[in-house]
């Protein structure tokens, strides 16, 4: 569970089509990466509602969940789940805490010791796309994604967390609309975000979390 939760954390924004003039634009990989990186380099905070679908290949089952996420540079994030109710993933930039409400367990470790995904690090100001991935860019139409293109990222350093990360990008704004994470077991983790907001004030208390009394603390 801890690997799935941490590996799943990734950037995504709601799937809303841009103006028709931009729909057929498919830049080369270097241009696409530079445009997307530039957009998020100018973003100090990001928040949105999210919907997540996790497909487990071994069991042929899909689990859906949802909630609200906030990112703040450098290295801070808060995933607050409404379904399953009470689950949290919180980082203050130093410690990563993953709380599972149903089991009353919290996994806690240093961020630099976790499987902190490259798909997230560029958003929190601690990495860059071109340093972490080799990209192939395809037309969004081939993936049923109208109005943009898909950046297919292969990690430069092998990781058990994922083998590919697909970034669905709005061609008009260079903003990522969806992320799909694939791992070596053919599991798929997809995030779509809704009602995104960038560069707004964020309450610093969102990045601290104390679990309820009786919670078992696990240090992987």
SSE blueprint:
Blueprint lengths: L1 H7 L20 H13 L3 E12 L4 E12 L3 E8 L1 E8 L2 E6 L4 E6 L7 H4 L7 H4 E7 L8 E8 L8 E7 L4 E8 L5 E11 L17 E3 L2
List keywords for this structure.
12-stranded mixed sheet; outer membrane lipoprotein receptor (LolB), chain A; globular; 13% helix; mainly beta
The gist of it:
This protein has helices at residues 2-8, 29-41, 118-121, 129-132, and strands at 45-56, 61-72, 76-83, 85-92, 95-100, 105-110, 133-139, 148-155, 164-170, 175-182, 188-198, 216-218.
Element pattern in H and E: HHEEEEEEHHEEEEEE
- How large is the radius of gyration? 17 Å
Unreliably modeled segments: 10-23
CATH class reads Mainly Beta
Got a strand count? Answer: 12
Distance between the termini: 12 Å
Number of domains: 1
Shape: globular
Order of adjacent strands in the largest pleated sheet: 7-8-9-10-11-1-2-3-4-5-6-12
Helix content: 10-25%
The fourth-level CATH homologous superfamily is Lipoprotein localisation LolA/LolB/LppX
How does the major sheet shape up? Answer: 12 strands, mixed
What integer is the average pLDDT?
86
- CATH architecture, by name, is Clam
The number of helical elements comes to: 4
CATH topology: outer membrane lipoprotein receptor (LolB), chain A
């Amino acid at each position: 569970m801890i690997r799935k939760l941490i590996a799943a954390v990734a950037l995504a924004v709601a799937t809303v089509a841009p103006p028709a003039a931009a729909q057929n634009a498919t830049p080369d990989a270097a241009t696409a990466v530079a445009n997307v990186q530039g957009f998020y380099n100018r973003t100090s905070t990001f928040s949105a509602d999210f919907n997540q679908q996790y497909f487990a290949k071994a069991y042929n089952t899909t689990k859906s969940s949802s909630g609200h996420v906030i990112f703040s540079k450098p290295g801070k994030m808060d995933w607050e789940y409404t379904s399953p109710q009470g689950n949290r993933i919180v980082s203050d930039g130093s410690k990563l805490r993953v709380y599972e409400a149903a089991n009353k367990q919290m996994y806690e470790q240093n961020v630099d010791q976790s499987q902190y995904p490259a798909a997230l690090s560029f958003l929190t100001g601690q990495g860059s796309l071109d340093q972490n991935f080799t990209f192939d860019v395809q037309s969004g139409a081939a993936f049923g994604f109208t109005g943009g293109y898909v950046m297919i990222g292969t990690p430069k350093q092998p990781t058990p967390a994922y083998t590919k990360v697909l970034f669905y990008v709005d061609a008009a704004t260079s903003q990522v609309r969806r992320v799909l994470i694939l791992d070596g077991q053919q599991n798929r983790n997809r995030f779509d975000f809704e009602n995104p907001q960038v560069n707004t004030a964020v309450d610093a208390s969102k990045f601290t979390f104390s679990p309820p009394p009786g919670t078992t603390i696990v240090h992987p």
